Amino acid sequence: MRIFSGIQPTGQKHLGNYVGAIRQYVEGQDRGDAIYCIVDLHAITVPYDPAELRTNVYDTTAVLLAAGLDPERCTLFRQGDVTEHTQLCWLLSSVTAHGDLNRMTQFKEKAAKQRELVSVGLFLYPVLQAADVLAYRADEVPVGEDQRQHIELMRDIAERFNDRYGETLVVPRHRIPEIGGRVMDLQSPDTKMSTTFGSEQGTLYIRDSDKAMTTKIMRAVTDSGSDVVRGPGKAGISNLIEVLSVLRGVAPEDVERDFADAQYGDFKKAVAATVVEHLAPIRDRYQELQADPARLEEVLQAGAGQARSIASETLADVRERMGVGPPG
Q: Which residues pair with 290 in a beta bridge?
């Protein structure tokens, strides 16, 4: 089985990235041929600073390695280094419906927040994302809940291509965690935790100090009640229950049972202790790795070479099927 997923190099990585995606990446190394991509081309679809983008690519690489990705057990590379992605994107755009892209929720949300130019790149984002995955004929795509719509479009594109040109592309399936697929902002639990659009106090960064992590969780917005249970009107406490559930590897019902007699303060202390236990070693290792950008670049270049060897075969097959270029 081949696994593929991409992660944006935008800002600092946070608890939501770790719970919803990075943990799945690490586990994927034991389940199949794992390929992971830092999607710098996706990051340029909104206003950005070029120097900051390069820094963020290394930052993200360091976080992934610190969390447990092993270049000997997976392929890790920078999207912009493998030109097959953009070539395949253009070819796949010919079997992508304009109406489907118009319905993409993330495009509407991000476009509404842009004060200046809303780029065509932002509109075509899902097609490039489809090319990212389909180039590797991946069977499985580990993502967060917010990417479900994009994966469905990706499947539609692959099926439409195969119907029109013959069986060429693998139709991938998503792998979305049942619990923790969408970690919410600690100060605004009705919105997803986000580096770009979230609040500073509501976003728990992987490189936060132990004290900062604990303080943010202790100040997390909950509700006027006192019962540690999920339910309507309890978005904040439900979010913390899911986080603790994922990190402890137990069901949310087990968390509710364990804290049936606890007050919110004691429960938050337990959540904070567990988060620090999991993230502090990653943070410390990240700081070591982040200080050696040359080593990080070596990892990315080696991964790009491995990725190109796979993606080039898919691109050649797609071009041949579509009649693009000289006959094979």
A: none
